[in-house]
Amino acid sequence: MPNTPLDRIWDQHVIKDYGDGRALIHIDRHFAQEGTSGRAFDGLRRAGLRVRRPDLTVGTIDHGISTLPGRTLESWGPSTPRNLAMQRNCEEFGVRLFSIDHANHGIVHVVGPHLGFALPGCTYVCGDSHTASCGGVGAWAWGIGTSEVMQVFAAQALVMRKPRTLRAEFHGTPGRGVYAKDMILALIGRYGVDAGVGHVVQYAGPAISALPIEGRLTISNMSIEFGARGGIIAADDTTMAYLHGRPMAPTGVLWDQAVRDWRVLFDETDAKYDRVIDVDCSALVPQVTWGNSPQDVIAIDAAVPDPASFADTDRRALAERALGYMGLTPGVPIAGTKIDIAFIGSCTNGRVSDLAAAAEVVRGRKVAPGVKALVVPGAAHVKAAAEAAGLHKVFQEAGFEWREAGCSMCVAAGGDIVPPGQRSISTSNRNFEGRQGPASRTHLASPAMVAAAAIAGCITDVRRMLN
Amino acid sequence: MDKFTVLHGVAAPMLMANINTDLIAPSHTPGRTPDESAKLPLSAKMFANLRYDANAAEQPDFVLNQPRYRGAAMLLAGPNFGCGSSRETAVWSLMESGISCVIAPSFGDIFHDNSYQNGLLPLRLEMAAIERIAAALGRSNASEMTVDLQRGVLEVPGLEPIPFSIPEDRRQSLLEGLDQLGFILRSEAEILGFEARDTAVRPWVYS
Ligand code: SF4
């Protein structure tokens, strides 16, 4: 018996086994967002169906919204119809909606774990590929398309094929200035963006156990950039302490019963994985991407690679294309590359600890002339907590814009766009061509690294700015 | 969902690896304001960053802009096609442009599932075979080939028939144009039964 947590979670959720590798799987939690649910609601209406379990469903409006102070659902024209439709749909179908004026508002993957809506051992879906984030608290969470959103609305179940399991072990203790973001970028850089295809990744090892929950969410968040639809981190004492008392987490005897079940689910004594890989974090250096795929990543003290250095012809061609698109020269150190925009936010790195790490670098310094720098908290609760700690002042005094929660520049949404040819350094998860706007040039890095670049005006080693 | 039985048409080569869904169906299109982009049909957004320059004019060297490949019905692609975001618009933009089969060595998991949900066939084939097909089509006059799902073969001018297989349930639902939701709802009683039992076992999930 393979006996991994995924195997046990799978067994707990099989409604019906079709005997051909497929099973009907129960969905415990569904978080809908406005960008991918419109057609699903329309489909329900046409078919005369309802949302069968509104008690297991919530919604948010996070992608297509302005993040400027005083915004409304109609502040950004191109998304206005979708935003208003989401509001109407949730009302009509009885789905609790955390809209922009709600205390629970925020980017779907930031809000889910914070509320305790995401729980260990739960099947958790959302029409968004970064749903895997919620694996950071031990949920089996994955992104689905709009057709499947409609199926979950109507049936609370999906036809699934069991994914293979891959255990990624992180050893060693990362040094100062090295964060969860660097760990996951290093994994993707080493094994490639398609290494996880068909798998659920179980992130493990001492360096993962040592991470607080917010760091774990950053790791799981980028499972999709590793090719995996889901990523799980075993629920442990850190997880229980984080979830206990959250508004949507179980309480009293139900909590005790849940914890007993979770302890069994995540007991890995006899677990056998289809594949095991590892990463050593002790020698890890802050990471930054140079190309148009998250696997195009190097250490901050390295030079832009020469495409000729890639043995694989395909990779070589992609590297050549990427260097042209990014306007970089092989052999030149990546540190020192001038930037136009610094973006701190997104479901990868828009949590309180991310903002705190960036603020530590920014405190008492100024954003370099000519650089547009913005902080977009991942959720309303993040914004409130950061303001309570005075972090907004640190950012504003340095010359950062301080925004309302939303996806913003991660996906060129809500009017926050990187103009053609401009270079941004960003705490988000995708450096694809056109992701932050047509002809935008994106470098991915940790919040502290982005903060350091905003101050220096160029990509730079944050470790020199930390005391 | 339309039935997928035998598809005959032009196959366009885009053999690059890791073509992501942002590239297939970007949220912004070059040379257009966000408002204009939002109003474009999905077919006009397909590969927009590759198809158009900063003035929204066509890039003549992009494969789907070449006269030979306009109106392609299939794509030949590299590994990990459709990686990235879950946006089903990636599948819809291909289908609305008349493309209902992508042949690649591997696919992003979500794109792969989204394809079947909509009747687009994501066909896995070894890279070497795909390169052979691309080379043969390059030599042919019309770049046309046939995907015969009924018989499970690809017919490419100048090559022996290439057999392929996909899971039988996937094949049947494409052949019959079956709708997945209808299939799931046939098990409604079992779903309700499961929830009743599970509420006793894992009450915290439902409270
Ligand atoms: S922050 Fe970016 S990656 Fe995360 S959900 Fe929003 S658009 Fe997607």
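qc> The mean pLDDT of chain B is 95.
qc> done
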